[in-house]
Amino acid sequence: MYDYLAIDIGASGGRHILGWVEKGRLRLEEVYRFPNGAVQTDRGLVWDTEALVREVRKGIRRCGELGKAPRTVAIDTWGVDYVLLDGDGKELFPAYAYRNDRTLAVREQAEERLPFPALYARTGIQRQDFNTVYQLFCDRLAGRLDRAAHFLMIPDYLAYRLTGRMKNEYTNATTTSLVNAETGGWDKTVLERFGLPSSLFLPLSQPGEAVGEFTDEMSGYAGFRARVVLCPTHDTASAVAACPLDGRSVYISSGTWSLVGTERETPAISEESRRYNFTNEGGIGRRFRVLKNIMGTWLFQNIRRSLGGGCSYDEMMELAMRSGRPARFDVNHPSLTAPADMLAAVKSLLGRPEAGTGELLNSAYHSLASAYAEAVRELEEITGEKMGRVVIVGGGSRDAYLNRLTAQYTGLPVCTGLQEATATGNILSQLMADRGLGLREARELVQASFDLKEEQA
């Protein structure tokens, strides 16, 4: 009955969610949850990959303890970050976290190797200082590639630890800015320009492909045997796989980051898309997710932290709604990436040190909704298509006030109700591989399984 297990890991936590089809509807059941977070070290922010492995294993064992052993397992995480392994398959260094600022020191050298316009023309990936290409360039300059034999993205590494088999999955690999948007493979020119050995990288594998069976040790620990398969291992790619999209839909995957985009058969790489900082990441079925990264719930998470954690998100929303129409600020301003005090950072951007908490919260809400609307207008310009509705998925879609403001600012109806989009897409990809379903059939199953709501502009 419990056919599939989605292990969905984000920057702040992870979950194990079982999925199965019953009476024509997809059913989900969370069986395990754990915290996650980057760790501050003398190297800056890094991920505790051993802690992640332990938690992944514990959640799988929990399925066995409950008598709910799945047949297949798939893992999705955030993008960009990776693990370097030696020739024996051992982790060489702590995996750097994307919020580590180490790449800032090599920005000029990287631009000399391959100017960003030329890099974008090949890969279609937006400029962000933490892009994998710049992280690996840092590693090369520091000599950290000298003993490296294998490169695995975070979900690739976790799957390897369960099976002993290595794969480089396509959707997560596209976030590296090392994959050619036209060929769908590693770009040899980019690798050469940055001095990155091609031997580190495996041929790319698509969602639906098998990684392998649990190792004997893992099977003994879990109490059952299962096969690990590839979902779209980038969490947004899994989320978009579950979205009930048509050719004129905009999706917003609302989590720590808000990813605003549309799904296309071909990439959108042009001077306009580069100027607007849109990215062309891989999706299920070799589709492209033309999207823009915008600050998401990170903003509210850190405002709550600034308030001492004593205010719930619902209380923060009520405070914002009781405030008058506020001034707006740039939610993507660099000062908001990792501030010591988010409220102080917002006050500084607004130039209003005397502003109260409700006003600042309402400014955050309106600024985020306004950024969504601007991204939609830019999408229409670069694709030449008029968008017809917005589909908001993920944990942030629970925020009724932000949904209402998004409809108001975009002038488009807003569809919500798919809060577990990433886990759903992860499980759908396993189901598609298992039963031979097409993407359209899988998305029809989503619409039949969840109570989707639409709010008019």
Description:
The model has no long low-confidence stretch (mean pLDDT 95). Strand 4 and strand 5 form a beta hairpin. The radius of gyration is 21 Å and the shape is globular. The chain is an alpha/beta fold and 457 residues long. It folds into 2 domains: 226 residues, ATPase, nucleotide binding domain (Nucleotidyltransferase, domain 5, 2-Layer Sandwich); 223 residues, 2-Layer Sandwich (Nucleotidyltransferase, domain 5). The protein contains 17 helices and 20 strands. It starts with a strand and ends with a strand. The strands form 5 sheets. The protein has a 7-stranded mixed sheet, sandwiched between helices.
A few lines on this structure:
The chain is of the alpha/beta class.
What keyword list fits this structure?
457 residues, alpha/beta, Nucleotidyltransferase, domain 5, 2 domains, six-stranded mixed β-sheet, 17 helices, 20 strands, 38% helix
Strand order of the largest sheet: 16-17-15-14-18-19-20
User: Which fold name is given in CATH as the topology of the largest domain?
Assistant: Nucleotidyltransferase, domain 5
Count up the helices.
Answer: 17
Mean pLDDT: 95
